Amino acid sequence: MWPWALAFFSGQVAKPERVQAAEKTYTIAMDTTFPPFEFADKNNKRVGIDIDLIRAIAKAEGFKVQLKATSFNGAVQELQANQVDGVMAGMSITPERKKVFAFSDPYYQSGVVMAVAKKGHITKLSQLRGKRVAVKTGTASADYANSSKKKYGFKTVTFDDSNNVYQDVISGNSAACFEDKPVMQYAIATGLGLKLGNMKMAMANDYGIAVSKSNPELVKKINAGLKKVRKSGEYTKIVEKYLAMGPRPTRIKRPRKPTTPAAPSWAY
Ligand code: GLN
């Protein structure tokens, strides 16, 4: 008999330490760039409200997350193909999506706004006739553009990420873009060369974390964790941390120190 078998049968095997049930790891797909929800900071580290929030939820509920950055549309498709466990990408809870996915409780309010070139003359929907409007593939903004393009007579052009959407307006190829309000406000406050157009927010919605309908257990965990982090104040801390980087009043310029002493007032 092998020595280990002997040891086993004679009960001499070291008792295994009490092993805790291994924490489950869930893969969550995110958008590439959607500040303040997910983006790369100066050091190319991926940060944002979504990232901090899902980590806090996972910690509160004892599971692990592996984050995967892809395009918004790519993330949604991967969830549909069951290649990831969830999508957290400033994703709007819509009736159509609810037919396909299960959603967590809402965690942020949003809606669609229009942005235009900072120095351009176009500010209204009625000025878009015959012009191009940039939107991101598969988003609520793209839906809004498609549903209103006939009425206002514009064409749409789609991109896979928000940066390209904005650049198309900045470069003058598109007369406007549609984007989520908190995202557009943040981008403008942090120096993007666009301004909000004169349009009422459309398609008011809430962000939620999308999960496969066949995984009610994960939805439960996320909702329980979300409740905990709201109650502990962590949710507010996370949101405030990122919003403080955005819509902040511009710095007051201090008068420069004169290089030569000012002439005494009686000299005049
Ligand atoms: N909230 C929008 C949607 O769900 C856009 C999301 C995004 O671009 N990441 O369609």
Can you describe what's shown?
The chain has 268 residues and is an alpha/beta fold. It folds into two domains: 25-107 and 208-243, 3-Layer(aba) Sandwich (D-Maltodextrin-Binding Protein, domain 2); 111-204, Periplasmic binding protein-like II (D-Maltodextrin-Binding Protein, domain 2), CATH 3.40.190.10. The protein is 34% helix and 22% strand. The chain has nine helices and 13 strands. The chain has helices spanning 3-9, 49-61, 72-80, 95-100, 140-152, 162-170, 181-189, 216-231, 234-243, and strands spanning 25-30, 39-40, 46-47, 64-69, 86-87, 101-103, 108-117, 132-136, 155-159, 176-180, 194-196, 202-207, 210-212. The strands form three sheets. Strands 7, 8, 9, 10, 11 and 12 form a six-stranded mixed sheet that branches. Strands 4-1-5-13-6 form a five-stranded mixed sheet, with helices on both faces. A hairpin with a 5-residue loop joins strand 2 (39-40) and strand 3 (46-47). Helix 2 (49-61) packs across helix 8 and helix 2 (49-61) packs antiparallel against helix 9 (234-243). Residues 1-11 and 248-268 have low confidence and may be disordered. The structure holds glutamine. Residues 31, 34, 72, 89-92, 110, 136, 139-140, 180 line the site of glutamine.
